[in-house]
Amino acid sequence: MLKLLLVAAVAVAAFVLWPRGDDGTERPPRGAQRAERTPEPEPQPSPRERPLRRPKCRDDVPDCASTSGRIVYVERVDPDGDGDLHVVVTDSRGVTLRGLTSVDVSKDLRPRRDPRVGDRASAMGPVQTGSFGQSQIHALEFHVRRR
């Protein structure tokens, strides 16, 4: 009985998923000229979707790194209580891990409204060791673009 039900279920699935010859579109009569399709222009990303420019490192900043990408993690309340903000940004260069860069943003550079996951961010500063032993950028420059 179970075998029969399984065979029936496979047959129904094959019938439903099997490609049909007629897709419901009208076809021009034979010998008719085909109209040339003009390619549709590619949609331009909105200003909010465009990536932020990666800030250039300054010569006077030792062990400098920069990042630009989408925010994937935000730590609004800092455990050590000094009022800074921590964000993790996707980045092809990846300072902290492959593809990810952790950024420590001091209270002075912290934006008026905290960024959210999905916003874009860019930062530049020296690479320092964080409280968990991770490499991170101590931001001297920090920019956010909301989605």
CATH fold naming of the domain at 64-145: OB fold (Dihydrolipoamide Acetyltransferase, E2P)
Total number of strands: 6
Main sheet: strands, sense, barrel: 5 strands, mixed, barrel
The residue fraction in helices comes out at 10-25%
Strand content: 25-35%
CATH class of the domain at 64-145 equals Mainly Beta
CATH superfamily placement of the domain at 64-145: Nucleic acid-binding proteins
Give the rounded overall mean pLDDT: 81
- The CATH architecture assignment of the domain at 64-145 turns out to be Beta Barrel
- What is the SS-derived class? mainly beta
Structure description:
With 147 residues, the protein is mainly beta. The chain has a domain at 64-145: Nucleic acid-binding proteins (OB fold (Dihydrolipoamide Acetyltransferase, E2P), Beta Barrel), CATH 2.40.50. It has one helix at 2-17, and strands at residues 64-75, 85-90, 100-105, 120-129, 135-138, 141-145. Strands 1-2-3-5-4 form a five-stranded mixed β-barrel.
